From TrEMBL:
The keyword Oxidoreductase applies. Pfam families: TENA_THI-4. GO terms for biological process: pyrroloquinoline quinone biosynthetic process. Pathway: Cofactor biosynthesis; pyrroloquinoline quinone biosynthesis. InterPro entries: Haem_Oase-like_multi-hlx, PqqC, PqqC-like, Thiaminase-2/PQQC. It comes from Pseudaminobacter salicylatoxidans. It catalyses: 6-(2-amino-2-carboxyethyl)-7,8-dioxo-1,2,3,4,7,8-hexahydroquinoline-2,4-dicarboxylate + 3 O2 = pyrroloquinoline quinone + 2 H2O2 + 2 H2O + H(+). It comes from the Bacteria. The gene is pqqC. This is Pyrroloquinoline-quinone synthase. Keywords: Oxidoreductase, PQQ biosynthesis. Residues 22-229 form the Thiaminase-2/PQQC domain. Belongs to the PqqC family. Coiled coil: none annotated.
Length: 252
């Protein structure tokens, strides 16, 4: 796997920087993870799919909070007007009519109780650490790096295009209604990633800033990869489910 540690050495043009960022996704985005490969191959058990939906809910639920932390540090009103669309997408007009609610519908469609999912209490410890690390990164790192970390959305339509048709074809208990979360996401992700990419290419105007945005995207890919690593360790063949975490055989 390519090492991106010194990818900006000597400075990059905007087009070269974009090429590197896309290379990060091509090599490190989690559509390359074995758990995803098993999902699209149809070999995950229902319990493994439930565990994925439950743990991924923790990530979905934190997105508006991380985006609010980005907004709080943005001085440009035009930037804020564009960025707040992300919060509206996930929260909806009343807090429960957006993407988070649709993800909850996905989880309940797989047989999980809504209150248990919303509480996040049975999520894996590694999931909570990964999600917390992402929230802290966006709250504490420079605005440019926080924006760059969102560029995993460049690759989101690819993984959705792999995941949705495979799940519908290979899991007879999965319906289009269950997967309604994904109906709007490719369009939203493309809109958001176009804006974020343009912002990054404009403002990453030194070698140091270019390397910082590359590192930010690598970090975000690591967060998503670590979440699937945790699922595989807990619910795959190893079966090392930590104390207090969701156990499919118990139905909770």
């Amino acid at each position: 796997m390519k090492d991106f540690h010194d990818a900006a050495k000597g400075g990059l043009s905007a087009s070269q920087l974009e090429t590197v960022l896309r290379e990060v996704g091509a090599e490190r985005y989690h559509n390359r993870h074995p758990y995803h490969h098993r999902m699209v191959a149809g070999t995950l058990s229902k319990g493994e799919l439930q565990a994925w939906a439950l743990n991924r809910y923790c990530y979905q639920a934190v997105i508006p909070r991380k985006d609010a932390s980005v907004l709080a540090r943005a001085e440009d009103p035009a930037f804020r007007a564009e960025w707040r669309k992300r919060i509206e997408d996930h929260d909806g007009e009343d807090g429960w009519s957006g993407g988070i609610a649709r993800w909850l519908k996905l989880a309940t469609g797989l047989g999980l109780p809504a209150d248990m999912v919303k509480s996040q209490r049975l999520a894996l410890p590694a999931t909570r650490f990964a999600v917390g690390a992402y929230l802290n990164f966006c709250a504490q790192r420079p605005l440019l790096e926080a924006v760059a970390s969102s560029l995993t959305e460049l690759f989101s339509p690819v993984i959705i295009g792999e995941r949705v048709p495979a799940m519908l074809a290979k899991y007879d208990y999965v319906t289009k209604e269950t997967l309604a979360y994904f109906d709007k996401r490719p369009e939203q992700a493309s809109r958001d990633s176009d804006f974020a990419l343009a912002y990054v290419l404009q403002h990453a105007d030194t070698t140091e800033r270019q390397q910082s945005v590359i590192d930010a995207l690598v970090f975000k890919c690591d967060v998503l990869w670590a979440m699937l690593d945790a699922l595989m360790h807990a619910y795959g063949e190893a079966g090392h489910i930590p104390p207090g975490a969701f156990r499919p055989e118990e139905g909770r």
